[in-house]
Amino acid sequence: MLNEKVAELLNTQINKEFYSAYLYLSYSNYFSEEGLDGFANWYQIQAQEERDHAMLFVQYMQNNDAKITFDAIDKPASDFQDHMEVLKAGLDHERYVTGLINNIYSAAYDVKDFRTMQFLDWFVKEQGEEETNASDLIKKMELFGSDPKSLYLLDQEMAARTYTAPSLVL
Ligand code: FEO
């Protein structure tokens, strides 16, 4: 049986991951409106990954007979000044999520819940990758974003991203 605080934090994380999916879909909408379909594709796939993350938390809680309660999903931002604002908000968001994962890990550690710690190990690694991806995008946009031809090529690169299901099996 899961510790009450750990279960509560895991339950909240389901909502946070679905919110992340919603947020990235909003970014995808923005880039689609801007005519950057490659970026729209990249964020749409990012949204799919976030939905997967949410489902992994659902599955983990179901596997542990923990009660799940869904809360309303917050409205994501949808008005942006420029491309860079979106990319920077994406990095800030991933750093925020890393903090949430670390917080659950810390609560599991406090009660010697090694099973949850092991489950979260995948997310700790994933957050490292997500932060790196988000910050790499900012660097690329800083380098190439102001030149239309380079931005076009960068958009092509973003269009090449394909969806892969998470490697974590519960
Ligand atoms: Fe589910 Fe991007 O963290």
Descriptive account of the structure:
The chain starts with a helix and ends in an 11-residue tail after the last helix. The chain contains five helices and no strands. The chain is elongated. The chain has a single domain, classed as Ferritin (Up-down Bundle). Helices cover 75% and strands 0% of the residues. With 170 residues, the chain is mostly helical.
Helix proportion: over 70%
Tell me the radius of gyration: 17 Å
Attached small molecules: MU-OXO-diiron
Continuous helix count: 5
> What is the CATH domain class?
Mainly Alpha
How many domains would you count in the coordinates? Answer: 1
Beta content comes to: under 5%
Through-space gap between termini = 17 Å
List key phrases describing it:
170 residues, binds MU-OXO-diiron, mainly alpha, single chain, 5 helices
Walk me through the topology:
Elements: H1 4-33, H2 37-63, H3 83-110, H4 114-144, H5 148-159
Helix pairs in contact: 1-2, 1-3, 2-5, 3-4
Bound molecules: MU-OXO-diiron.
